[in-house]
Amino acid sequence: MEKEVSRVKRIVGELRVPSDKSISHRSVILTSMADGISTVKNFLKAGDTLTTVNVYRKLGIKIEENGGVIKVHGKGLKGFTEPDDILDMGNSGTTTRLTLGVLAGQEFFSVMTGDESLRRRPMGRVTQPLKNMNADIDGRNDGTLLPISVRGSQLKGISFFNQKASAQVKSAIIIAGMNAEGETTVEEPFKSRDHTEKMLQFMGAPITVSEGDVYRVTVKTAEKLNPIDVEVPADPSSAAFFAAAAVIVPGSSLILKEVLINPTRDGFFRKLKEMGADVKYENVREKTGEMVADIHVRYSPDLRGIKIEKKDVPSMVDEIPVFAVVATQAEGETVITGASELRVKESDRIKAVVKNLRNVGVDVEELEDGMIIRGKQRIKGGYVDSYKDHRIAMAFSILGLVSESGIKIKDADCAYISYPEFFEHLQSVVER
Ligand code: S3P
User: Binding residues for phosphoenolpyruvate, per the UniProt record (predicted)?
Assistant: First the structure.
């Protein structure tokens, strides 16, 4: 489905964007390994997280849905049952990589596959360390691409350096570590999102975290996990689109309610402030172990270009496409480097952003690991391709709001992967 987004007068009001995708995935995957029933309030109902629900049902877990609340009937660390068919991971990298960590330590055979995009994405970053733990894994391209098969085996602990600072990889190894003999350690050069560690600590897992020169997580063989009750806050990665809109559309003022501001996730908002944007955290509070705030964002006419470097990337990795959109409206150069991970997301996001920016009249330079945007630029408008990538579709919808002739986005319905209500929410806060 094609969508057209055109210039608006301003963005105003309040919005509670959908719940956090990363925490929602974990709230099913981890609680399904608990002994007993967990309750998850405000579970995100979107393409990717519903994939997780389907997959865990196929692995023998009873999951009840009642409005925004789900109940997961956990069956213990090794309580899953052999699926009678191939597991379909859809578009979801998080479901795939975390589930590889789950399945490696079970006592049965399973096969997983995914859509065209997911079948291109690198899985060796998870399957190789799991093989080092004695996992029995095979798949296309020497076990590095889906479809992948796993025959459960007795795992052993390892020490692993998570070079790419990928939270999905870290989480897979930690999960496998709970079913392994001995101790498993994961170290990261830059701390990636820590929801797995936090939730497992909450569930009473034998896991410790230390932060010094490197971030280190240690996990021992787990006997059991306690069921929990969690409430999922609003997703900062979804809030980022509307924050970007309010910052660049003249006269705007928008309050984004109950947004997760965990420091491993709020890099986008911190970088907006560094650019000179009017972004304020109000009513900061804790919600089931995570910090949340209402984020008040106002139009910011004096944005300046800044640098995004490798160390900045993990805490804003999914927000870089929409950050590039904001950068077109900042005075001077915005230089993004150290972001080569973007090339292996749902699409090659560096290529997608650069091509689309050029299509709507922006002068942008592509780098191997990022891009340079020289602002402030006029956005003529035109036709862009989402490459069936939800974050690209939503980022370019936001740019449409300040375009002269509107932006048409190909396959814009892919927004449902993380944010099914995106276009309705956009309608609800624009003034024409
Ligand atoms: C995620 C981690 C990030 C992120 C993805 C969700 C997670 O991926 O891009 O959308 O929930 O762990 P990487 O682990 O590949 O950096």
Answer: 21, 93, 121, 168, 349, 391
